[in-house]
Amino acid sequence: MARRALRLRKPRGSGEQAAAAVVACAALLLLARMAMAAWHAATRAWPWLAAFIAAAAVVGVWRMLRAARARRVRAQTLARLRLTLAEIDAMDDVAFEFALRDLLIRDGWTAHRVGQQGDQAADVIGQDRQRGRIVLQAKHTKVAGKVGSSVMYQVKGTAGPVHGANIAVVVTNGSFTRDARAWGERHHVYWVDRDRLRRWAEHSTPLQDLLRLPNRPARRAAFRRAA
What we know:
Layout: H1 13-79, H2 85-89, H3 93-106, E1 110-113, E2 124-128, E3 132-139, E4 146-147, H4 149-159, E5 167-172, E6 175-176, H5 178-186, E7 189-192, H6 194-202, H7 207-210, H8 219-226
Parallel strand pairs: 3-5, 4-6, 5-7
Antiparallel strand pairs: 1-2, 2-3
């Protein structure tokens, strides 16, 4: 059997109304006393609360300054980054990818390594305000190793559609086949072979100057041409 919901009824008669008024006054008085007690407790605890807030602010500022100093030191270190071909040849695939990331940062790009299984032909992705987004595909190989055209096909097929990049580059410490270089130049896939890598990593020639990378067209200009 379902229970009936309890409903409050209005006071009837002067006696019930007076009793309800007394209860309401008592409740208001209790609330007022609780509010005053809370106010006095907060007043007594205020110095400790202020000290806690000040300490938290000091710790937060200290952490921000420490992070800013670490970024500044890293930027200064990367600005002096020089890598010889012998050092690059001694790297494994992962270290090579991180080295390319650091070289991009040295040249003024914002870059991060993404290389992993299923990376869809992108080991490093960089961003530049003037030139847009760049994708680097790293191919660490033996000195006599050659990168073929199939790598150029893969990078061309994923750089724009998958990674949203307008610049695609394949970098190796070896060399490229003649067909790979020719296909890349026809289809705007840049390549950095051993000789170019030396100029980039060891002689500190910025990648944008080495490859003569174009600036990204302004959106307004692109809209006007489309119109």
